[in-house]
Structure formats: structure tokens, C-alpha cells
Design goal:
Elements: E1 9-11, E2 32-34, E3 56-58, E4 79-81, E5 103-105, E6 126-127, E7 129-131, E8 154-156, H1 161-166, E9 177-181, H2 189-198, E10 207-211
Parallel strand pairs: 1-2, 2-3, 3-4, 4-5, 5-6, 7-8, 8-9, 9-10
């Protein structure tokens, strides 16, 4: 690593590397770091924030169980791939500081609640999943501030009528598929129906999946 300080691209995908050495944080010019399918990697160096030029970070299919808080200081990060990181249960609380993030892929993780202030990620275009916290209250309305979202997001644990409306799903003209999921344990079927009505999608939508919604009457 000492002879590679000017390295911009590093692909360690499918290697048997166990954990990244601290010296990797001295690659100050690094822009792309790929660790896809490095199944022995369980953590990242705490000084990750020193990679100030990092644009692309792929941690998909690793065994990582938490992201260091220093990740949130990577203000130039544009793509973060975490697919199939099944041991990852949460994103750092200051995640909203990744102000230039464009792509966030978290499907296949154990994350079931989004951090606060996701609406500050104004440049976010791809968000594969959005989980509404059951214990800290709904934060679906944060989606209403993300005007460039596109793709086919999954949304789970939706339970707040006002937040559903403030998410402004009907303004998301670049959504081509929408997957809405409920727990199936909510006994207030009327509330679920009104919440579903608040999630009216844009007319450009091509595919809609609604799972485990309660009640005997569908939304208008």
C-alpha cells in the first residue's frame, strides 16, 4: 500500500481478504473501492473518512455488521452498494451527511429502519428499499424531499396516513415499479386503507405490488 498512494481504483472483489488493513486509508486519491463477495470482511477501518476522494464503495455480499461513523464524512461518495449484507442491521445516525450520494442499494440486508433526515440527500436517485421504523415513528415523509428518485423501491411498515401523503409518491414520475409491504398484524384496516390511498403512485408506474394489507375493502 505504501507504494500506491496515488491509486484511484481498487477492486478486491471475490478475494479471501479478511479485513481491510488500516493502511488502505492512506490511499488518499482512491475513488473506487470494490469488496463485492469478500465474505470474510466483517468491519471497515475506523479512519475510512481519510479517503476523501472516494466516489464508489461496493460492500455487497460481505459479512459486515456495522458501518463506521466515519463513513458519513465521505462527502464525495456517490454510490454505496450494500446488497445482501445480511448481518448489517442499521445505517449510521449521521448518514444524511453523505450529501452527494446518488445510489444507495440496501436490499437483502437486515436493516428495518431508516435513519432520520434522509430527505437531506437531495441528489439521491436510486434507493432500493425504504423501511419505516416501528419504534421511532414513521419517517416516510422524508421521501417527499427527494425529487430525483427513480427505479423500483420497496417500502415496508407503512402505518402513518399523514406521512404517506407527504411522501408525494404521486410526484415520483421516475418510479417504474413500487412494492408496498405491511406486517399483516395491524388490526386497523381502515387506517391501512387510508394510508394506502395516500401512497397513490404517478401515472407512469408500470408495476405495483401490495403485500399483507389488511381489511376487506381496497383503497379507492
Amino acid at each position: 500500500m505504501n507504494n500506491s498512494k496515488h491509486l484511484r481504483y481498487l477492486d478486491l472483489s471475490d478475494t479471501r481478504i479478511e479485513n481491510l488493513p488500516d493502511s488502505i486509508c492512506k490511499l488518499y486519491n482512491l475513488q473506487t473501492l470494490k469488496l463485492h463477495c469478500c465474505t470474510q470482511v466483517v468491519e471497515l477501518p475506523p479512519d475510512l473518512h481519510k479517503l476523501v476522494d472516494l466516489h464508489y464503495l461496493d460492500l455487497s455480499k460481505t459479512r459486515i455488521n456495522r458501518l463506521p461513523d466515519s463513513l458519513c464524512k465521505l462527502h464525495n461518495l456517490q454510490t454505496l452498494k450494500l446488497q445482501a449484507c445480511q448481518y448489517l442491521v442499521e445505517l449510521p445516525p449521521d448518514f444524511h451527511n453523505l450529501i452527494n450520494l446518488h445510489h444507495l442499494k440496501i436490499s437483502g440486508t437486515s436493516i428495518r429502519e431508516m435513519p432520520n433526515n434522509m430527505g437531506r440527500l437531495k441528489h439521491l436517485q436510486i434507493l432500493t428499499s425504504f423501511y419505516v421504523g416501528r419504534h421511532s415513528g414513521s419517517n416516510l415523509k422524508e421521501l417527499g424531499k427527494l425529487n430525483y428518485l427513480r427505479g423500483s423501491p420497496e417500502m415496508e411498515n407503512i402505518n402513518d396516513i399523514v406521512d404517506a401523503r407527504e411522501a408525494h409518491i404521486n410526484d415520483k414520475k421516475y418510479f417504474y415499479k413500487l412494492d408496498l409491504q405491511w406486517s399483516g398484524n395491524n388490526e386497523d384496516s381502515q387506517r391501512e386503507r387510508f394510508t394506502l390511498e395516500g401512497l397513490q403512485p404517478h401515472v407512469n408506474l408500470k408495476e405495483l405490488a401490495i403485500r399483507n394489507v389488511g381489511g376487506t375493502r381496497f383503497a379507492d
